[in-house]
Amino acid sequence: MDTMKYQYEYPRPSVTVDCVVFGLDDNEIKTLLIQRKLEPFKGEWALPGGFVLMDEDIDAAALRELREETSLDKVYLEQLYTYGAVERDPRYRVISVAYYALVKLSNHKVKAATDAENVGWFSASDMPKLAFDHNIIYEAALDRLRAKVRYEPIGFELLPKKFTLSELQKLYEIILEKTIDKRNFRKKILSMGIVLETDEIQQDVAHRAARLYQFDEKKYLNLKKQGFNFEI
Amino acid sequence: MDTMKYQYEYPRPSVTVDCVVFGLDDNEIKTLLIQRKLEPFKGEWALPGGFVLMDEDIDAAALRELREETSLDKVYLEQLYTYGAVERDPRYRVISVAYYALVKLSNHKVKAATDAENVGWFSASDMPKLAFDHNIIYEAALDRLRAKVRYEPIGFELLPKKFTLSELQKLYEIILEKTIDKRNFRKKILSMGIVLETDEIQQDVAHRAARLYQFDEKKYLNLKKQGFNFEI
Fold first, then answer.
1. Is B146 touching A (CB cutoff 8 A)?
2. Are A10 and B14 a contacting pair at CB < 8 A?
3. Average pLDDT over chain B, rounded to whole?
4. Which terminal residue of chain A, N or C, has fewer Cβ atoms less than 10 Å from its own Cβ?
């Protein structure tokens, strides 16, 4: 049986995609991992990912692999970095294009399939040693996520349409992993002009109902185009 | 003659690297291009680049291709983005990892070799239609360069060790392509604390000699680690 049916004049590497999906719950950021069903690193935890098919764009490959292995769908993946060290895969030369995303954990049910034996959301404190160079990719994605806060405000997709400033502050605190002074936070976020007061207050809360706010997306996109600094 | 000596079970794409090297002269940013000696796009201008070898890291491949085709050496290339649309190369599937750098044009002599018929520095206003998707890669690199000013001050490698604030301002104006108010610029750059006054002034100038300054690299690295915003 001749299984080597693809022949080339020059040697070629394989190309994979790997996805770092951060899921935000009420108190922390968790990371979506799969347990590998196949060698190499069989039984070990890894980022979801796999080989790019010849007739699909790399972005599409990342979405497909994520969907196949974890059933996670409709995620806005952004390209992170490409990892191309010669020895990063024990089998043969594999160059991997890494992607990352931040989603609201409770909105996404996950289920292992295809090459994944198991799937789970891992806290930073429980992060296992991952297959390949995936710990390095994970750290780079975390750095990028935190740096991104400077040029893109957090929250558009992660909060309900109307939210309290405390909810927004909590989001910043979880992602930046630091406590933020409440007064400074309010002053700064309101002075940007991208968060607007509504005439509504919270409903059905035990404590004093807080004012609800919403994002002004048009204003935000304008500021972003001008290179505005959204840092808190 | 059997030239197809590399055989694989699954099809594999080729992987290339492409380099956007910006050269700063006295008045503008120019871009280093090569004229292709080979098909496809023979005779057309393109970014320097080529195939990644199986035994070299992708970063090393970018440096090697740049050196081979343009004789440009010792450049600090940073990874930009990976381009992987299915049809981006008319021959077969090629995924390209793009890099970029900013150098002082006068420090670098270039000379065409290997797959490059010709080499040259092109002004933005003279940018030709490039081979493959290279115009898209060029635009992305320019955007990245300008965005970078926010989290990394310009100038460390581009100015002499001691420089005037006018020289530094000119650098910002060229890269950001806008005029900057002199008083605001001085106030802002000095308040960051990364540019220090020396006790020297310019020598051999016709006009009134200006004060010389130098970078405080230690202070800068400290601020950078804290996520400081260096925007002017």
1. yes
2. yes
3. 92
4. N
Secondary structure of chain B in the HEC alphabet? CCCCCEEECCCCCEEEEEEEEEEECCCCEEEEEEEECCCCCCCCEECCEEECCCCCCHHHHHHHHHHHHHCCCCCCCEEEEEECCCCCCCCCCEEEEEEEEEEEHHHCCCCCCCCEEEEEEEEHHHCCCCCCCHHHHHHHHHHHHHHHCCCCCCCCCCCCCCECHHHHHHHHHHHHCCCCCHHHHHHHHHHHCCEEEEEEECCCCCCCCCEEEEECHHHHHHHHHCCCCCCC
Which of A9, A15, A150 is closest, CB to CB, to B227?
A150
Q: Do A6 and B11 touch (CB under 8 A)?
A: yes
Is a pLDDT exceeding 80 seen at residue B51?
Answer: yes
Q: If you average pLDDT over residues B176-197, what whole number do you get?
A: 92
Domain extent listing, chain B: 14-148, 165-225
**Which pLDDT score is estimated for B132?**
97
* Fold of the A14-148 domain: Nucleoside Triphosphate Pyrophosphohydrolase (3.90.79)
Establish if B51 touches chain A: CB-CB under 8 angstroms: yes
Architecture per CATH, A165-225: Orthogonal Bundle (1.10)
Report the SS3 class of residue A2: coil
pLDDT of residue A2: 58
The mean per-residue pLDDT over the stretch B64-76 comes to 94
Is 80 exceeded by the pLDDT of residue A231? no
Task: Collect all residues of chain B within an 8 Å Cβ-Cβ radius of residue A8.
Answer: 4, 6-8, 12
Residue B88, sorted as left (phi over 0), alpha (psi -120 to 50) or beta, turns out to be alpha
Cβ–Cβ below 8 Å for A229 and B227: no
Residue B45: pLDDT over 90? yes
Q: What is the pLDDT of residues A180-225, one digit of tens each?
A: 999 999 999 999 989 999 999 998 888 889 999 999 988 888 888 7
pTM above 0.90, yes or no: yes
Q: Tell me how close the Cα of A7 comes to any Cα of chain B, in angstroms.
A: 4
Of B11, B59, B82, Cβ closest to residue A58:
B82
Nearest-Cα distance to chain A for B195, in Å, is 22
A150 at the B interface (CB within 8 A)?
yes
Instruction: Give me the pLDDT at residue B159, please.
Output: 87
